[in-house]
Amino acid sequence: MDTEAAVPERDRSPAADEAEPGERSRFAVLGGWLAPRLPVWWAQWRRTILLALAGVAAMMLVSTFVLEPFQVPSGSMEGTLRVGDRVLVDKLAYRFGGTPRRGDVIVFDGDGSLTQESGTDFVKRVIGVGGDRITCCDAQGRLLVNGHPLDETYLYPGDTPSRVPFDIVVPDGRLWVMGDHRDDSRDSRDHLGDPGGGTVPVGRVIGRADWIGWPVGHWTRLRRPATFAGVPAPAGAHG
Fold first, then answer.
1. 76 is a catalytic site residue
2. Residue 49 and residue 181: Cα distance in Å, rounded?
3. Which residues are CB-contacts of 161 (< 8 A; sequence separation ≥ 6)?
């Protein structure tokens, strides 16, 4: 009589595992497939790629809300801006209580004032603000703003301040704008008979053009001409 009881197998030897690969845990096999497999170069370039993506996102936010480049499409602002120049527009210049001032170069949506086409942006110089009386011209051919003659040294060489005579009071909340190349600029003068008299609503202003950013050889800060500092407040204005 065989008195030895059969001992149940407790451990599998390594040799047995090697001999029966099909018996390995299916979970272990699937786990290998489910684990993320990243390319080798990711570990080397991860920091650079993440920084680049963050930089692009930051540039998009700045362009949308703070500073946006605009390309000059025509010669209406020569000799201050040339065709193809890219100006950097400060979109916050008038967002916190500030308003456009005489002499500022602005970018604005001209729909309803200088054009009937929506989404058409213009770049012009502010000559008068709400309440100003603008007259063309005095005996010396100069524009008058509230009786003050403008010495417009920024005009395109050979241009006169205006070949079209006019006398207008700018409505409140609106702007009278003109190009620096007066003989090649369609601006407020061309819409004197339209509603609003060719003036642009302040609410249509996108921002103030502060710099010429491109091309490199034309880098310039666009400053407000000194001649506007002598313009008095409109008659009847307070402060």
1. yes
2. 46
3. 136, 137, 141, 142, 143, 150, 152, 155, 182
On whether residue 98 sits in a domain, the answer given is yes
Q: What is this structure's pTM?
A: 0.73
| CA 118 and chain centroid, separation | 17
Q: What's the burial of 162, exposed, middle or buried (CB within 10 Å: 0-12/13-18/19+)?
A: buried
CB 198 within 8 A of CB 191: yes
As a whole number, the mean pLDDT across the chain is 82
Enclosing H/E stretch for 54: helix 40-65
Of the candidates 25, 63, 74, 76, the residue annotated as catalytic is 76
Residue 22 above 80 pLDDT? Answer: no
In a domain, 218, yes or no: yes
B/e letters for 65-101, b = 16+ CB within 10 Å, e = fewer, are: eebbebebeebbbbebbeeebbbbbbbebbeeeeebb
**CA 26, 30, 31, 32 torsion-angle sign:** positive
Same domain for 218 and 114:
yes
CATH of the domain at 71: 2.10.109.10
Residue 46's pLDDT is: 64
Give pLDDT, residue 95: 87
Residues spanned by the domain of 30: 23-63
For range 24-42, the mean pLDDT: 52
For residues 147 and 212, membership in a common domain is answered with: yes
Which entry of 124, 162, 185, 188 is annotated as an active-site residue?
A: 124
